[in-house]
## 1
Amino acid sequence: MRGAACGAALPDNSAPCHCGGRQNDMSKNKRLQKGLDDLEAALHQWLGAFENKDRLVAVHQHLKGLAESARSSGVGELSARALRIEKPLAALVANPGLAAQSAIQTAAALQELLAWDAAVPPQHGGPPASQPQQVAPKGATAAPIYLFNSNPLLGEDTAMQLRYFGHSVVVVSDIERVGSAIEKRPPSALIFDFEYREDLMAKVAALAHARRPPNRHYPIAVISTRGNFKARLAAARAGVDCYFTKPVDAAALIDRLDALIVSKVAHPFRILFISDDPAGAAQYSDVLREAQMDTRMLHKPAEIFEAFEEYRPELVVMDVHTAACSGIDLTRLIRQNNVYLDVPIVFLSHDDSLSHELDAINSGADDFLAKPVDPAHLISSLSSRAERYRALRGLIMRDSLTGLFNHSAIKETLAREVASSERTRTPVTLAMIDIDFFKRVNDTHGHPVGDHVIRTLSRLLQQRLRRGDVVGRYGGEEFAVILPATPATAAIGVLDEIREAFSRIRHHADEGDFTASFSAGVADVTAHETADALFRAADAALYEAKHKGRNRIEAG
Ligand SMILES: Nc1nc2c(ncn2[C@@H]2O[C@H](COP(=O)(O)OP(=O)(O)OP(=O)(O)O)[C@@H](O)[C@H]2O)c(=O)[nH]1
């Protein structure tokens, strides 16, 4: 979605401004921009659920609104283009059962319309082309991927596959317009779908070399039927980051692009300070915050376990002496608990005598920094320890095939979320998800293809769920999803969209493309109060979903 327009807004039919001159132009531009933003948002929502009639109707309304405001603003060409699409769209609204091909064709035409606008250079009164983009949250408002394909219909077909993973994709069918689209709004990635030609590759090279960090440092991918050395070498020379041969596996392409897209919303290290000298600790905490770390203060050592449970620090900094007890005793206390055996503990103290340092290390501390600590030294010492801790925890808690939480990590997380929901009196939902007839996938296409289907679902779940939701691989082809602060009814809505999207993803195999589906069972804490009860209820609901025919979700 462009700018800051919201997804569900209705067309802006407000009367044109009569203030005259430049101000009038500005308000016309703004109105048109809003019309385009709203149409794009509605289109994105519809593409996420093709069968949803309400979303189709919303697209239709926004398109009519845009045609009208373009006409009243004197932008006749945009109005005419919008009206040309309005007819087939109205036919779709009247008869949503029309072939999927006509829906795709209409969606492609709408994308073209939006791309056409993206190519218009900003007019006076609009934001300057170089204005940095706002960092968008995960989801539909992230910067779009521009996908070039000279055939808009084929481009739209690929775009649909990518959208199932939650990306906003704009198809551009004229290569000359890619540059102006970037000027108007820098993308999160560029994809060129073409057969190798020197002139096209030269254009890609020019775009690749014009990239500048931070907001113009997007990855560039090429997808092509030709994967020979010459074509790949030309792409590498042009500055292309990744090269895929057709048929392209959407999950693999997204995986690669995501790894290349620099994460704008970093996950800062969580550092817990235990000190009874608030002013002194705050001084060091400020240094760490400036270095993009997250810090929390604890002044009462007696609350240490609550702080660990809730904040889950990736490193603890403490004074050698606090009024309540010595840091060395506190370290022994922390190390008594198996779960916290490996959290790094660093002492900060004026007391740099060797005997204290040895005592600290013997009690289970990892380092001893004598005050005053040089800020650069503090940052590098703490961040390298926190980083290693995070990496090791990742290895222990994550499944190697998917990178998701493994069986024991998901059980541990659910126990924590249930305890927290009890404290905060908010709901939490557990969903158990199982791929349907998965044995058949393995038997027909082989284990590696089966693994690939598992990875595709894992990626889709990660993409489509909120940042606070926790996804785990419970075993084999079974997944567990924890949705904090979400009642079962809301969880079913979200999961049903994912179920729908998954069932439309094409998987490639030597024997031919195929699709797969999953079934799910959900349960929330209002009816099942403990973690064990939730697992049992969600599992029973999953069994029911399988029994009732699969590719469905049941509540327990
Ligand atoms: N490729 C692959 N297959 C796995 C993995 N883990 C388990 N499986 C296979 O998943 C299949 C699960 O089959 P079943 O439990 O019979 O269930 P299903 O065929 O999915 O049928 P329903 O669940 O009843 O729809 C078995 O063939 C397992 O060997 C894995 O990591 N990779």
## 2
Amino acid sequence: MGSMAIKMDERFPVLDDPLPHDTSLQAFMVSTTRGFLPRMDPIVTLPAEFDVLESILQRMPVKTLSGEPGLLAHGQLGDVVKEELPDLTDAVDKYKDNLPLMNALYRDYSFLASAYLLEPCHLRFIKGEPYGLARDTLPKNISRPIARCAALCEFKPFMEYAGSYALFNYRLADPSLGLVYSNLRLIRAFEHGLDPSSSEAGFVLVHIDMVRNSGPLVAGTMQCLDSLTTPTPQTRTEFNTGLATILDSLKKVNGVMETMWTKSKPNSYTSFRTFIFGITSQSMFPKGVIYEGVEDGPQEFRGESGANDSMIPLMDNFLEIPMPNTPLTEILKDFRQYRPSNHRGFLEWVKTRSGTLGLRSWVWNTPPNKQEAVESKRLWLKVLNQVRDFRWRHWCFAREYILKQTSHPTATGGSPIVTWLPNQLHAVLAEMATLGSSMEKDGNLGEECGDIVDLVRRQQKTLWKEVSKYCEERGVEMTMTPIPEYHEGVSVSA
Ligand code: HEM
């Protein structure tokens, strides 16, 4: 089901039972129980053939598990990789039928690859110097095995958010306590992340803690789409129940997101992020990276980024949020490739299914006076409000963790730091203002939705001012389109 073509007129095979013991399936498959988390908790222990890799990865972080400085603290990783690590591609092949194990190897080689390439930049960064150039060649003992496991797991041969850095990088300190924040530990880290109270650990673990709530998000989405696919007299009721489930799940996700402020400190982010930069659009890699023994030409890939999480893209596709036709939106589309193949297939399927059903029109162009139809609109607006809430908080993160800390112009995924996040936030605000105005006209806004629309109108102006200020300070072109005063007269049909 990973890369297998799913016909768009068939129901996407979302799992209810995530089949945690089935090693013939990719680790990442969308389910109504674990949502976008892998089907099983990530594999921690590698087979004995990989003992050298394990030993290097344990000695690698700036601060190791014992608290002693590791190889990256003194710039010793490059030499150790050359001296100690054999090319273990044949050992990878020996286990190729065990896809979750391939995923663990992909995670581990991608940690090593990023640390190896960016080690020189880290050494300059801690001296307060600009990043300068990274290493531009990945030696065979890393490039061949990472290319092999990435191909088997259907990832890019470079660190990704789900398959490597975040969602396949946790273990349970006490398995009997399950997936609760205080019980989560990182498997791999670059800087201080093996200490669960560190900002690096907090940054990663908050992502996992959020995605832990994505099962009902998937289930609610499927319920909404199913209810319209085969219409019955109960369709509207079922649709509204599905929307309510989505809303509940997003509220939990946003509630956990808010804990980032205390779990990971704004002034610590820039030091561990050196290792999660990608190759695409980064000054550290002006000529890409040569993967020795794999491909002839230089390669480039986007870096690790929450932009490759699937929860918000799911909502973008389900709600048919119109994105502006800008080069920034092209980057958003490019990000959609950097995720597990099954997530990719699911997101595409939802986009097509919502579009074919004309979901947005069905909700917004129905007669305004039927109570259940009005409820669909209110729920839809509240779900959009959670997407807004996510993106607004996210913009606040970008301001506090990045813009106020560094002048480096490009985020880890290779997007321009000042304008990219606002491109999407602006689009969500505009959509909400448009839909809110149409409810207002019909006299159906109600108090809660009225408050939401008021907030949207205030945030449109604040965002505009903030982005203009950063663009001016940094000499960046302001790309946001002007805000039409309260979007009067804008059509809401899809
Ligand atoms: C300190 C916290 C965070 C910072 C500094 C941060 C930073 C960024 C940056 C700079 C981008 C732009 C894309 C790029 O990398 O080129 C981005 C995108 C994104 N990040 Fe984060 N992030 C944070 C936390 C999170 C969390 C907890 C999630 C949860 C899943 C997340 C999900 C996303 C999403 C979905 C996008 C795409 C946004 C969109 O479509 O508008 N981020 N992040």
